[in-house]
Amino acid sequence: TTVEETLVLVKPDGVARNLTGEILRRIEAKGYSLVDVKLVQADRTLLTQHYAEHEGKPFFGPLVEFMESGPIVAFRVAGNRVIEGFRSLAGTTDPSKAAPGTIRGDLGRDWGVAVQQNLVHGSDSPESAARELALWFD
Ligand code: DAT
Ligand code: MG
């Protein structure tokens, strides 16, 4: 086994739609463990660091604005191969393309909202997980 930790964010749309519990239920049902949790009103500095890889892309401004629009719930989650495993639970970025059975596929609204409103963030590699956990939890 390869025990890892990852950062999961329930984005402002997920918190506003009262889906935090349903998202955590799916994480726990998969066998992952909640290590730490907090409710955060993120500021632009944190979000710019969090999404540094996307700075300069056309969707960066709207993405940061959306992430600032309301509280976020941050989870530190541990488990066997949880980094890739949570990405698979979340489904692909665009909810209209995400498979049934995934968080974005089952719960994402696939029309009338922008792609950034896709309910969750999950770290995409061990390096991202370490960097992002330090940003949100240290
Ligand atoms: P993911 O969240 O699946 O890791 P990402 O890291 O490529 O996706 O992008 C970060 C977020 O930015 C994503 O959750 C939603 C938004 N986003 C990505 N690509 C987009 C696009 N083409 N148009 C609008 N928003 C986009
Ligand atoms: Mg990403």
UniProtKB/TrEMBL annotation:
EC assignment: 2.7.4.6
Binding site for ATP: 11, 59, 87, 93, 104, 118
Keyword presence, Cytoplasm: no
Cofactor(s) this protein requires: Mg(2+)
Location of the active site: 121 (pros-phosphohistidine intermediate)
Reaction catalyzed: a 2'-deoxyribonucleoside 5'-diphosphate + ATP = a 2'-deoxyribonucleoside 5'-triphosphate + ADP
Superkingdom to which the source organism belongs: Bacteria
Signal peptide residues on this chain, from the entry's feature table: none
PROSITE patterns reported in the protein's UniProt record: NDPK, NDPK_LIKE
A Pfam family reported for this protein in Swiss-Prot or TrEMBL: NDK
Keyword terms: ATP-binding, Kinase, Magnesium, Metal-binding, Nucleotide metabolism, Nucleotide-binding, Transferase
SMART domains (UniProt xref): NDK (SM00562)
GO biological process, one term: UTP biosynthetic process
A molecular-function term among this protein's GO annotations: ATP binding
Ranges where the Nucleoside diphosphate kinase-like domain occurs: 3-138
PANTHER family (alphabetical): NUCLEOSIDE DIPHOSPHATE KINASE
Entry's family note: Belongs to the NDK family.
Name of this protein: Nucleoside diphosphate kinase
